[in-house]
Design a protein that fits this description.
The strands form 3 sheets. Strands 1, 2, 3, 4, 5, 6, 7, 8, 9 and 10 form a 10-stranded mixed β-sheet that branches. The longest helix has about 35 residues, at about 320-355. The protein has 24 helices and 21 strands. The chain is an alpha+beta fold. A hairpin with a 2-residue loop joins strand 6 (about 165-170) and strand 7 (about 170-180).
């Protein structure tokens, strides 16, 4: 404790240096702690309100093309009965539902769940009870619903008598039986659900859905903990064996399906896998940044060490041992590290709130319950202590071995070996270059993705969703609705074209996959081919600006004579038709045969930067939609101004039609880039900061070297050396170390980039521009103290020896 009191007094005597150290450590620790809190929320505790949720695993079916279409309800039942490596497998599927009376509908996201859902998660209701297994035994079972704590408070005023009340959901009355605990928001990472409904109510709520009886209808997720003493490999082997049995029993739907046991955070459907990967990369780079900050701090402390040699010599002369002196010196950097950790924890708390507050243009109820809890504070303090020990190790080792006779005889400006400082400076420069180049490469990748051609015209399009789910609607009425809606939209002033589609490209949840067969095409197995699919009306390609390279658009919606049609893209032709003439070819999908009438240019469908992907466009006429996305293109831009007119037209066509998520196509695309934008913005903010920190460290070492050689400088100037020559010598010696550090860091980045780019051309601006900027900043940091020293009067410099 005496050492810490002494450290506090010493820090008070070097306020400016201490301020710089604490701020730099605080920023480094704060960024790492903020990222740790997000990783904790996504990996260690991905499901708020569920105990030990990081131990859950997903059972994910995977097609032979690599896609993850989800599990069918019947498949879930088979696997639950045959698998013994898991404890109480649960199933769930997200779906939007319309809640309320026809004239005031509200779109709310719900989960269809299995009967053991709440019990397997170990949850206890805040009010009432949860769904019982017997309530999910047969289609159309008990009409019950569990509501979220937030929905209970926001929509039902937190009424204690809510149990037993009815909610009108998709024109169907459901009885509220329970309220979920406050923290629980569902079992999809990052999404907040308000309703939980028995899966066996799907046929009632979704207009006769056949998902409970049709094995080809997928979309359910299955999750469970491993049984005691069962390894991942054993569980995977049992799951693979069960999928093989299902493939033999149901070849039409399961012959091309495998399955994987995945950690819950690694779900391939949803944003968590991409988000965790991005955060992990960012965490690694920010840890390198923190090491660079520690090197910077060590250099600052070591540069100051020359002024304490007399003090240390006196302590050694009166009997202080090396360990005693090391303890005294380390206590100072430990105090600085702890103060930096306190500042870092505050920065992390602000940062996690700021990241959650970033607005998203999406219908999905995104919610991340991140924050700096006790674990985050402990992590920040641990980093602070480690940084204090790392930063103080070199000064403590050097000063604790000072010879007291040399120190007392030579004075405070005696020479100190520069090898350790040069090594620290070189390592700091190398680490700084690695992070700076990684930041630049990441940001360039983000900008290129944002500015790349997606294959369609992103400007000028307004989007809006609609949903007839729950209403009695036959295919003919859906076609009539689409015809009337599009006719009135196209009649609006400045509207160039309008269309309806089942999906919007580059949506955050991706596009669906459908199997098909091409007569005459041979495969090595009996499995069908697969491709993404979209259902669109005539005029869709003109609305989106996707060129038709051959053939024609779809037949009119009211043309009953035309055969079922489809349009495919270039990649479909290349991959499945071997470049043969596609127009007129017959494709079998489901129980119907479709004729290819056109070929569209390739575009992006799931994510920026994806490889060419085959897709099938079906005609709305052949497969009417009960819910879809309205697309309207306006001449001359300003598409957001069409929103009031679009809502008016929708009311005229159907007064009870729920219109939701009205946004521009550009706003929609920004949602896809959201997960990339967070680390890109952090890199852009931290890159210049790291450049400044590296320059400060270099400046400190050069200033120290200049300070300890003041007399030598004075002597050289007195003997006739020019100030420019003397300054150049100091700059040259420091830049030699900087150059070695830049060379090492550049080599590391180059080797890693070659490995990751897989033959793609490297970015010359980043590979050569960033090292040049760092070298120039380092040269300035070296020149400033040298220039100031040579401006001193030689006689004054000689008297300072």
């Amino acid at each position: 404790m005496g050492d810490f009191r002494h450290a506090w007094r010493m820090i008070g005597r070097m306020r400016l240096l201490a301020f710089g150290v604490i701020v730099s450590l605080g920023i480094g620790i704060g960024v790492n702690t903020a990222l740790f809190s997000w990783m904790q929320a996504l990996v260690l505790q991905p499901l708020p309100g569920v105990e030990d949720s990081g131990s859950y695993h997903l059972l994910e079916p995977r097609s032979d093309t690599g896609s993850y279409p989800g599990m069918s309800w019947l498949e879930y039942g088979d696997l639950r009965a045959s698998l013994h490596s898991f404890r109480d497998i649960v199933a769930f599927r997200m779906t939007p539902l319309n809640v309320g009376e026809p004239d005031r509908l509200e779109r709310t996201y719900a989960l269809f769940v299995s009967g053991n859902y709440f019990s397997a998660l170990g949850l206890h209701p805040a009010l009432g009870r949860f769904i019982r297994p017997e309530e999910v035994l047969k289609p159309g079972a008990d009409p019950v619903v569990v509501i979220s704590n937030g929905y209970w408070k926001s929509h039902l005023a937190g009424a204690p008598d809510v149990i037993g009340r009815e909610l009108r959901i998709n024109d169907y009355q459901l009885r509220i039986i329970g309220v979920a605990p406050e923290a629980f928001q569902g079992t999809v990472i990052g999404l907040n659900f308000d309703l939980w409904v028995p899966a066996t109510l799907a046929p009632s709520l979704l207009s006769g859905s056949r998902e409970l009886e049709d094995r080809s209808i997928r979309g359910y997720s299955a999750m469970a903990m491993l049984a005691p003493h069962v390894s991942n490999a054993e569980a995977q082997a049992e799951l693979s064996a069960s999928m093989t049995q299902l493939a033999k029993a149901y070849p039409e739907t399961n012959s091309a399906m495998h399955a994987e046991v995945l950690p819950f955070w690694s779900s391939p459907r949803g944003p968590q896998r991409m988000l965790v990967r991005a955060l992990a990369i960012l965490e690694g780079l920010m840890f390198i940044l923190l090491l660079a900050v520690c090197g910077n701090t060590a250099n600052l402390v070591l540069a100051r060490a020359s002024s304490r040699q007399r003090e240390i010599g006196i302590r050694r002369a009166v009997g202080a041992g090396s360990w005693r002196l090391a303890s005294l010196l380390l206590s100072e950097t430990l105090v600085l590290g702890i103060l930096g950790a306190i500042l870092g924890a505050a920065i992390a708390a602000w940062g996690t709130v700021a990241l959650r507050a970033v607005p998203l243009s999406t219908a999905f109820p995104i919610r991340f319950q991140t924050g700096v809890d006790a674990g985050g504070l402990a992590f920040a303090m641990l980093l602070g202590i480690l940084c204090g020990l790392l930063a103080g190790a070199a000064p403590a080792i050097y000063l604790s071995h000072v010879d007291p006779h040399v120190a007392l005889r030579a004075g405070s400006n005696s020479a100190v070996r520069t090898r350790s400082r040069n090594m620290l400076m070189g390592a700091e420069v190398a680490l700084a270059l690695i992070v700076l180049m990684a930041a630049a490469l990441f940001y360039r990748s983000f900008r290129e993705g944002r500015e790349s051609d997606p294959g369609f015209r992103r400007d000028g399009v307004l989007l809006a969703g609609y949903d007839f789910t729950g209403r009695k609607n036959d295919p003919a009425s859906m076609r009539t609705f689409a015809i009337r809606m599009l006719e009135q939209l196209r009649a609006l002033p400045d509207v160039e074209e309008a269309a309806i589609a089942s999906s919007v490209p580059l949506d955050i949840h991706g596009m669906p996959v459908r199997a098909f067969k091409i007569p005459g095409r041979q495969r090595n197995d009996a499995a069908p081919d697969q491709a993404l699919y979209d259902i669109v009306t005539p005029g869709y390609f003109a609305t989106m600006g996707i060129p038709l390279l051959s053939g024609t658009d779809f037949a009119a919606l009211d043309d009953a004579a035309a055969t079922p049609q489809m349009i495919v893209n270039q990649e479909f032709v290349r991959r499945y038709l071997d470049g043969a003439e596609p127009i007129g070819r017959e494709i079998e999908a489901g129980s119907r045969s479709y004729r290819i009438v056109g070929v569209a240019r390739n575009s992006l469908y799931d994510s920026f930067g994806e490889p060419p992907t085959p897709i099938i466009y079906y005609s709305f006429r052949d497969r009417p939609l009960i819910g879809g996305q309205i697309h309207v293109r306006r001449r001359g831009g300003g598409e957001s101004g069409l929103a009031p007119e679009l809502r008016r037209v929708a009311r005229e066509v159907d007064p009870a039609l729920p219109i939701y998520e009205v946004r521009t196509l550009n706003e929609h695309l920004e949602t896809n880039l959201f997960l990339r934008r967070i680390p890109a913005r952090m890199f852009m903010a931290l890159g210049p900061l790291l450049l400044v920190l590296a320059a400060i460290g270099i400046y400190a070492v050069t200033a120290y070297n200049v300070a300890r050689q003041t007399a030598e400088i004075g002597l050289r100037l007195a003997l006739g050396a020019t100030g420019r020559r003397v300054a150049a010598d100091f700059v040259r010696s420091s830049l030699r170390v900087v150059g070695i550090g830049i060379g090492i860091g550049w080599s590391v980045v180059f080797i890693v980039a070659i490995h990751l780019m897989h033959g793609k051309p490297l970015d010359g601006v980043v590979l050569f521009g960033v090292p040049l900027v760092l070298f120039i900043a380092s040269a300035i940091a070296c020149w400033l103290p040298a220039r100031r020293a040579v401006a001193m009067d030689p006689m004054i410099a000689l008297r300072q020896e």
